[in-house]
Amino acid sequence: MSRSVRKHPWLRLFAWLFVVIILLAAAAIGGGALWLKHAIRASLTQIDGSIQLSGLSAEVTVRRDEHGVPHIEAANLDDLFVAQGYVTAQDRLWQMDMTRRYVAGEIAEVLGKSLFAHDRVQRLLEIRPKAEQIVATLSDRDRRFLDDYARGVNAFITAHQDTLPAEFGLLMYKPKPWRPVDSVLILLGMVQMQDEHWPSKLDHEEVLAKLGPALAASLYPVGSWRDHPPTAAIPDLTQPQENIPDVPLDESQTQLEDLLQLRENLGHTCDDCAIGSNEWAVSGAHTASGKPLMSNDMHIPHTIPNIWYEVDLKAPGLNGSDFHVAGVATPGAPFVTAGHNDHISWGFTSLYGDTQDLYIEKVNGQDEYESANGWKPIEHVRETIRVRRGNDIVVDVGHTDHGPIITPAIPHEQRVISLRWSAYDPSANSIPLFDVDSASSWSEFRNILGRWWGPSLNVIYADDQGHIGYQAVGFIPIRDGGITSVPAAAGTHEWQGFVPFDQLPSTEDPVNGILATANARVAPDGYPYQLTLDWAAPYRNERIWKWLAGKNKLTPADMLTLQGDIYSTLDQELAHRYAYAIDHSTKADNQLRQAADLLRSWDGVMNTNSPAAAAIASARQAFWQMVLKPRLGDDWRLYGWGGKAFAEEEIVTHSPAPWLPSGYANWDEFLTAIMKQGLADEHAPADLKTWQYGQIHKIDLEHPLYGNLPWFKSWTGTGPQPLAGDVTTVDQANSLQGPSQRLTVDWSNLDNSTENIVYGQSGNPMSPWYGDQWPYWYGRTTFTLPFSEAAIAAGAKHTLRLTP
What we know:
By secondary structure, the protein is an alpha+beta fold.
């Protein structure tokens, strides 16, 4: 013992108290960890035996295969959807609860004031009132099925009050009863995720105001010469002639910080993470079996648990037909979203349809706005946001004829800006998923899609009769004066109805036997309507068409090969241009010359072990900041566009003088400087041959709660993993989003069809199905989804009987 401690006994007491506190804290943490592990284990799903479930009219059988996919068979449709609700809640209840809260703007009630800003935006957008309006106008049949599903979810909640998913105990709350409006909220969340473009119109306004329309036009291409619309008989090699509309050159009061915060509040945290997807169908003329093959992988932000839930549903259907459908469902909503039944298969990619407009309202000092019929009072609704460990906060939601006023979401904005969205239209009131699941032919399927109001999507199709088809869907407004990419003055660009369904792009059985979309332009030359100005870059779509063209004897294995393709036309082209620039630069050092040597001989494959892929990725990461910051300052961060990669290709390959910053003699010197900056930013080694793309391009999936806890993070997520591909490869993946599932339907044998999701069926980390699908997703392999009775019986590992 030190002399000081002997001289001052209180120091010894303090030291002992400190040790005791540390030991107590460690015990509390250890005890908490033990409690949490026990709670996780206690909430594991019952997968065998029988469970009495009130509300059923007959026994329901739930057989789970080796990946935990439930194959649910019931005596009637009502029992089927009750069981679907119950079984989904077994695996995903906490995810379902958090999703409905997130969409409705009610998540601060359980997570605290840090989520208030998000909740306020969702309340301003009036998502819950829209969900309630849809429920009130549903057909009796569809409302009944939603009631069935809710009964199943509530039966699980009631029976498991003491063994709810551990996340509820960790956050110290219990879920409210499930209602049909909650299922609709979750489906509206999918619409919002796919079709929410209004924040980008504010971003564009800032960029355009500083650059002016002429210079900015090269940043915002409307399609490209690489596009191949699915309704075009041959690849379209013409350059679209549409222009970005002129805008005022004065800046608004909106500030950079406001717009970046708005992105975060809405979950738009990644500029290169626009929702995407791939889909294609090939006729029997191109397959080994002589029957069509159809593939779909929807690109959506990564989550644990996954955004999709695999399921197989079977019961006697309506009008004496059998209802049997398999694929992925949205946790919290009944039916199957994308997949196949006995006769047809279908999948989706985002259309990028422009379904939203911002209007700058003219107001006076009497809380009135100028409408088409004169001055009218702004309508007001008071929304109360409950905040955990805080006071309730009342939000005033203003409303004009256009829609809700979103100005409060942008703190320094002085204008009164309202949002018009096709989702707000009274006719946007159907949920046609059950009818889609039940369809048996192209004509029936297409007639049903006429009621599909949102999200705006490209739909791919193949069937048991050998047909393939494509259809664009969604309510796309027709504007007087056309689409504008910035907020419009009220009274301009007003809506004149929606593009008629029978005039949306569509085709059946093309002569070449191939159909594909990947978010790029689908409107053919001469198409009379504007669907959007903001198509995705063309590279994935172009690669799919080129890869499929001329191939015969295709198999499901070939479809998986294409789904996992990581060759990039753009990256290889840019690599050659950067190599040329470095070769002709007077300022290239040895590291840069080594980079040029690697780039000029590279095959364009974005493999994790590729030094050249790392080099070009680092240059592309530095490119936009170095191009835009001299003209925009920090506002360069606001630049985003679906065709951003194509804009980069055009600027790099054409070397336009207006975009060359001062201080550089020519574009070769500038591109060399960009490469040098990129290598520095990514901490490239002196010897680039030792560098690997996977060192700078990684994926790390975490559970939203357990990923923040010591002792749990390491076994409830993937940990950092090298990731191949990029946003321009068919396997479009980055740290935040990528293929959320991979589906291939084989019409020569439905039991040979394949489907996998990213991580696993269960949300419980101790379930064998929590992360069992990760090796398949990460390794770009897959497995079959049994469909026939014989295949389901042979593959069943567990059987649960739900009894009345």
